[in-house]
Amino acid sequence: MNKIIYNLTLLLTVAAPCLLRAQSNNILDRARTELSFHAATRVELQSTYFEGKAEQGERTEATLHLQEGQFRLTYGVITAVFSRGVLTYHDASSNTLYISEPTEEELLQLNPLLFLSSGHKHYKISELPQTKLNHVLLFTPRSSGSQIKDIQVGFSRITGLPAEVIILSGENVSRLEVKIKKIDAVAKQAAEYFRLNKGMFAPGCEVVDLR
Predict the structure, then answer these.
(1) 90 touches 196 (CB < 8 A)
(2) What is the pTM of this model?
(3) How many helices (H) and strands (E) does the chain have?
(4) Coil, strand or helix at 77
(5) Per-position DSSP letters for 82-134, written without gaps between them
(6) In what order do the strands lie in the sheet with 78-83?
(7) Taking Cα atoms as reference points, which of 126, 134, 128 lies closest to residue 155?
(8) CB neighbour list of residue 182: distance below 8 Å, 6 or more residues apart
(9) In sequence order, which residues have a C-beta less than 8 Å from that of residue 76 and are 6 or more positions away?
(10) Does the pLDDT of residue 10 top 70, yes or no?
């Protein structure tokens, strides 16, 4: 009898990580599948940034358009577009246009759904206890040099889509909390929608190329 119990315990010990990995894969695959049905997607976000251990955060409403690896983000005085590895964003408060080639971690601060395409390539993924509304996955960077500590993502148990994202980063462990208020299929945009140039803005627009 003891040998049977030992063998069952050993089997469960070996199988449990595989089962958890399969569950996390199913959650991710469902979210990717739901989003892949759309040629283009519009996402309404509410993000709150907490510096270090601050209890009060800065809240921002944003709109994110996703299409074939590109995105356009608008929030407050900022308009940002990403296409073909280049991020261009305009800060209306200073009438400045910035151009850069961002890292994936930098992009994640703008597009919190980027983890869907990165998946197991850059992160170790584990499942956390589910809440009343969401399945919850924890993404831990594989790189020890990453500024991101971890990413916690809640996926709606009803729709399978991401519902909230919490990103912990930096030495002082700042926190970015993103609530995904709405995800809609929209018409596909022309390529120009994901481009910005100084001629689109007020005269005197300064261009800062950080590449």
Answers:
(1) yes
(2) 0.78
(3) 3, 12
(4) coil
(5) EETTEEEEEETTTTEEEEE---HHHHHHH-TTTHHHHGGGTEEEEEEPP-SSE
(6) 123-128, 134-141, 148-156, 162-169, 174-186, 40-50, 58-67, 70-75, 78-83, 86-91, 96-100, 206-209
(7) 134
(8) 42, 43, 44
(9) 60
(10) no
